[in-house]
Amino acid sequence: MLIPALDLINGQVVRLINGDFNQQTTYHTDPIAIAIEYRNAGAEYLHLVDLDGARDPGKRQFELIGNITRATGLPIQVGGGIRSTADIEQLLAVGVQRVVIGSLAVTQPELVRQWFERFGAEAIVLALDVNINDKGERLLATHGWQQASSMSLETCLQGFLEVGCRHVLCTDISRDGTLTGSHVELYADLKQQFPMVQWQASGGVASLTELTALKAVQCDSVILGKALLTEQFTLTEALQCW
């Protein structure tokens, strides 16, 4: 599945480079119109990142997220600094199908395991964002990629497989928002290691050729953000390729 992504700040569609709020570009002022455009082009799912909520949970854009959900009629997954049970409950209440959990999977794994048991594996996507070091270790970053950890993706994921984890969004941080190309080899290896997981590739997709390559290694889904916003290709072209 190809999943168009919209990153939201103050009700606008933006993109950051490597998660840096100081490297922000605004692309659209009407995210609902863009979401409808993606739906009309054939999108079956949407990925929203609430960057306001990531910085300040008190500013989470619940109303906008609910409006996008209702306007498109599409299933939607939402991430962006989700820190509490109340965050999850409110997002599900406005129609979100899945919440995306990142940093807390590393810093408070027992809490996230409880969420899996309470809300079910279909309601949660783990966002495992990796920095790959010189040894090839996939070390997880947290707090909007501003903090590095010593935990590997593989170690973290193993604990959540025990509570039924099924959906994982993996981003190679070095490539996100750069249009330098997807790390196809990473997803090929992860799918081989963990075939029971539905993998969502994210970061750096710049061409239709990469979509073909990701499909060939049985990557389950691809998040498309900057490539669509900068018109590297259209969603219609991508769907035809996929």
Topology:
Blueprint: E1 2-9, E2 12-17, E3 20-28, H1 31-41, E4 46-50, H2 51-55, H3 62-72, E5 76-79, H4 85-93, E6 98-101, H5 103-107, H6 109-119, E7 124-132, E8 138-142, E9 147-152, H7 153-161, E10 167-172, H8 184-193, E11 198-202, H9 208-216, E12 221-224, H10 226-229, H11 235-241
Parallel strand pairs: 1-4, 1-12, 4-5, 5-6, 6-7, 7-10, 10-11, 11-12
Antiparallel strand pairs: 1-2, 2-3, 7-8, 8-9
CATH architecture: Alpha-Beta Barrel
Kindly report the name of the CATH homologous superfamily.
Answer: Aldolase class I
- What amount of the residues lies in strands? 25-35%
Mean pLDDT: 91
Q: N- to C-terminal separation? A: 8 Å
Task: Count up the domains.
Answer: 1
The sequence of SSEs as H and E is EEEHEHHEHEHHEEEHEHEHEHH
Regarding CATH, which class? Alpha Beta
Structural class: alpha/beta
According to CATH, what is the topology? Answer: TIM Barrel
- Number of helical regions: 11
The biggest beta sheet is recorded as:
8 strands, parallel, barrel
Helical coverage, percent range: 25-40%
Summary, kept brief:
With about 240 residues, the chain is α/β, with parallel strands linked by helices.
Give a structural overview:
The model has no long low-confidence stretch (mean pLDDT 91). The longest helix has 11 residues, at 31-41. The chain has helices at residues 31-41, 51-55, 62-72, 85-93, 103-107, 109-119, 153-161, 184-193, 208-216, 226-229, 235-241, and strands at residues 2-9, 12-17, 20-28, 46-50, 76-79, 98-101, 124-132, 138-142, 147-152, 167-172, 198-202, 221-224. The chain has one domain: Aldolase class I (TIM Barrel). It contains 11 helices and 12 strands. The radius of gyration is 16 Å and the shape is globular. An 8-stranded parallel barrel has the order 1-4-5-6-7-10-11-12, surrounded by 6 helices. It is α/β, with parallel strands linked by helices and 242 residues long.
